[in-house]
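Hi support team,

I've been running sequence recovery on a batch of backbones for a student project. Most finish fine, but this one hangs at about 90% for roughly twenty minutes before it completes. I'm not sure whether the input is malformed or the queue is just slow. I've pasted the structure tokens below so you can try to reproduce it. Let me know if you need the job ID as well.

Thanks,
M.K.
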């Protein structure tokens, strides 16, 4: 099952990069929102999976355990990623909006420290297990 998820993820990434390259070479003139569809398909799948796990966890645990659930973190990460992608598409597609690049990447700048902290905690926990 894990192998299928990995292959599906790589397949969606491949389609996204093909669309992106063809669009950047100006061979097609699709809307930028269409180019990002493979990324959004992946994000929706991850979001729904995390949401289902939260609901299942809610049925069997107390509220404190639900609030500390790892799936809550995944939901926040996916929402911030989607917000960044939407803002990138808006900047690229609608130049009249005059969005500054630092405004576009605000969700990403919020997401980056969260991911760095999560990876650091995971690395320290795995290092403690090895000792």
């Amino acid at each position: 099952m894990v192998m299928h998820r990995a292959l599906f993820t790589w397949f969606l990434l491949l389609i996204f990069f093909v669309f992106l390259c063809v669009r950047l070479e100006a061979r097609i003139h699709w809307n930028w929102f269409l180019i990002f569809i493979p990324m959004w398909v992946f994000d929706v799948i991850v979001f729904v999976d995390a949401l289902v796990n939260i609901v299942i966890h809610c049925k069997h645990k107390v509220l404190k355990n639900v609030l500390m659930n790892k799936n809550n973190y995944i939901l926040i990460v996916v929402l911030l990623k989607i917000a960044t992608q939407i803002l990138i598409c808006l900047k690229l597609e609608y130049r009249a909006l005059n969005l500054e690049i630092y405004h576009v990447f605000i969700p990403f700048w919020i997401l980056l420290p969260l991911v760095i902290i999560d990876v650091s905690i995971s690395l320290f926990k795995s290092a403690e297990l090895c000792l």
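--
Follow-up from support: It reproduced on our side and the slowdown came from queue contention, not your input. The mean pLDDT is 88. No action needed from you.
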